[in-house]
């Protein structure tokens, strides 16, 4: 009996020893295969993914910044200098250089030489001026269209394969949107100067004193991008390099208040010049103001919408028709009028001899009037 117990105890000891050896071997195997280090691996992998994501984000940011720079650099090539006098040498040392030399800026809008600028820079239709391109060469130019009421003009040079700006959509721009003004401040010595700002306001109306009379410019884009003398006629572009306005005027006794004429007003003219090579301008023969401008003329006069008829041209198509000063044109054909530029843009799409229908409001009553548009020389 004692021998059997001793034998059993010996077997138990051997079994325990085998179990210890097996457990030890398993522990060694586990340590060598890395099992038990999963939290460390997971943490490392997670850390590695985050690191890669940060690199991608930084690379995207770095890629975006040069893209903006490249867009601006490409846009600058389409900005030209415009002068009423053929001149050379420094202009910043000439007193009132912009006034004396007619120095200003322009924007190439087609590859075959159409250039958009201000009327006060290029002059009236059929006049001439001089255009200096990005390469420094100067060309004779003819003014093929101009409208002093919106201070825009289009000139043409005999040159092809030009860099030009694509037209944006000024009806979809918004407050605080980033914009860039490009032009030739103080003459060609500082040509193609770029300033950055935002859209400060939309549909602005301002009063300008010119030739001893008050002129009202309506539906303008206000920006805080710096606009100096000589920037007139230059480009206001969005972050994609598309032309949304033509820089026209600044407030001289304030900082960071400049104005541009929205590009959409002149699109019908540009499209006709591209497709037909000419633009035969139709004319309604009124001088009017919308509700934003009327407050400057008569603070007691309130209109909800439409165009207030301030004056009827004596040689225009409305003479001898049932319309008079003080009437309000609320609609042309099927288009409701809220801004003066609405009316101008609609007429720009028409041709001389086309007939349009006006809805006129007078003393609370509406009247319908059909008018055959005249040609504007």
Descriptive account of the structure:
This protein is an alpha+beta fold and 377 residues long. It has five domains: 1-26; 37-73; 75-156, Thrombin, subunit H (Beta Barrel), CATH 2.40.10.10; 178-265, Beta Barrel (Thrombin, subunit H); 280-375, Roll (Pdz3 Domain). The protein contains seven helices and 20 strands. The strands form four sheets. It has a six-stranded antiparallel β-barrel with strand order 1-2-3-6-5-4. β4 and β5 form a beta hairpin. The longest helix has 39 residues, at 38-76. It is elongated, with a radius of gyration of 36 Å. The model is unreliable at 34-56, 61-65 and 88-101 (pLDDT under 50).
Give the tally of β-strands: 20
Termini Cα gap: 137 Å
- What's the mean pLDDT score? 81
The CATH superfamily of the largest domain bears the name: PDZ domain
Strand-residue proportion: 25-35%
| Strand order, largest beta sheet | 1-2-3-6-5-4
Residue ranges: pLDDT <50 for 5 or more in a row?
A: 34-56, 61-65, 88-101
Helix fraction? 25-40%
Shape category: elongated
Number of spatially distinct domains: 5
Helix-and-strand structural type: alpha+beta
How many helices? 7
Report the CATH C-level class of the largest domain: Mainly Beta
Q: What string, H for helix and E for strand, traces the elements in order?
A: HHEHEEHEEEEEEEEEHEEHEEEHEEE
Rg, alpha carbons: 36 Å
